[in-house]
Amino acid sequence: ANPSLLILAGDGIGPEVMEQVKRVIGWFGEKRDLAFDVSEDLVGGAAYDAHGTPLHDDTMARALEVDAVLLGAVGGPKYDDLDFSVKPERGLLRLRKEMDLFSNLRPAQCFDALADFSSLKKDVVAGLDIMIVRELTSGVYFGEPRGIFEEGNERVGINTQRYTEGEIDRVARSAFELARRRSGKVCSMEKANVMESGILWREVVQKVRDTDYPDIELSHMYADNGAMQLVRAPKQFDVILTDNLFGDILSDCAAMLTGSLGMLPSASLGKPTEKGPPRALYEPVHGSAPDIAGQGKANPIACILSFAMALRYSFDQGDEAARLEAAIETVLAEGARTADLMGAEGGTPISTAEMGDAILG
Ligand code: NAI
Ligand code: MG
């Protein structure tokens, strides 16, 4: 049977960028004899409009069956006043939770043609290709106790940074597996100097490396220094492994090394399944962009690169993923630019579909 893919285009520009991904998927079936069993369903506001819930149970069940899920974006002003329990992002959160996607991969890759877009000097970022692995399902965003409590005559806001050995172990493995497909180098970031969870993090990551990944070159860095190094000399890194909170911040920081939100893909991976590859959800980093939705202006590259990640990590088609990335590199080098990629030099932007044409051409 063909590998299976569930497409959840979602809201706003989600369906617009996904349209171009579907053309790319069709191209692989036709030209590369790489066909997928594609199904499509609703998520977010679109699912709420149809079913009164941001993710239907049937959709959830399907997501657990397929080899990979590809999601566009969810949300928009139309849904801002909905009750929290049915807000569009709850659909995405449910997917992440029930698929147990604990490892979030965010590449920061600088396409040479866009190096001028970086917040940094061109030579600092040209050729940059690093990957941040962020723990996604635990840590301070979930730890108990949490809340705002009365304490004496004032209130106190409490969150708890909490990591079990098992949670650290599994995300470390995911980073080491990834590093084996890359340069074999991992830098783990925490704050073991001031945090108990950081001490445990460092210890467990080192133990997993020493026990099962002796081929990996592992280093440790305090996360604050990591932030500094990311901006000073990002090319010293290959895979960066870090927790939920630091990963949130460091990955946004790394994102800006490379320019537009319209270029950034991501993957969220879970435990390896019986079939081999882990449960996986691929999505662009950007949201539904209501300010440009419906105007054909959205950059489809982030979503197309997310599919490239699916080719590499879920379907074991690294060469085909590289082929797709090279096609994107080429059209950018030739000057194809959606509106978000227009620099100070000006010019005429192309549409979402025209960018798709260029990449397929
Ligand atoms: P956003 O990422 O949707 O947009 C931020 C800015 O970047 C906007 O000016 C937008 O036009 C631009 N932009 C984003 N993607 C682009 C693309 N592919 N091509 C060209 N320009 C692009 O973030 P924002 O505005 O904070 O949120 C809008 C909605 O999206 C909200 O409802 C929010 O909750 C939701 N959202 C959903 C996410 C998801 O589905 N994973 C992630 C982030 C936000
Ligand atoms: Mg963030």
TrEMBL record:
It comes from the Bacteria. Residues 4-359 form the Isopropylmalate dehydrogenase-like domain. Pfam families: Iso_dh. The keyword Repressor does not apply. Its main location: cytoplasm. It catalyses: (2R,3S)-3-isopropylmalate + NAD(+) = 4-methyl-2-oxopentanoate + CO2 + NADH. Substrate binds at residues 96, 106, 134, 224. It is found in: Cytoplasm. Keywords: Amino-acid biosynthesis, Branched-chain amino acid biosynthesis, Cytoplasm, Leucine biosynthesis, Magnesium, Manganese, Metal-binding, NAD, Oxidoreductase. Binds 1 Mg(2+) or Mn(2+) ion per subunit. The keyword Transit peptide does not apply. Pathway: Amino-acid biosynthesis; L-leucine biosynthesis; L-leucine from 3-methyl-2-oxobutanoate: step 3/4. Its cofactor is Mn(2+); Mg(2+). The record marks 141, 191 as: Important for catalysis. NAD(+) binds at residues 76-89, 287-299. Catalyzes the oxidation of 3-carboxy-2-hydroxy-4-methylpentanoate (3-isopropylmalate) to 3-carboxy-4-methyl-2-oxopentanoate. The product decarboxylates to 4-methyl-2 oxopentanoate. Belongs to the isocitrate and isopropylmalate dehydrogenases family. LeuB type 1 subfamily. Homodimer. This is 3-isopropylmalate dehydrogenase.
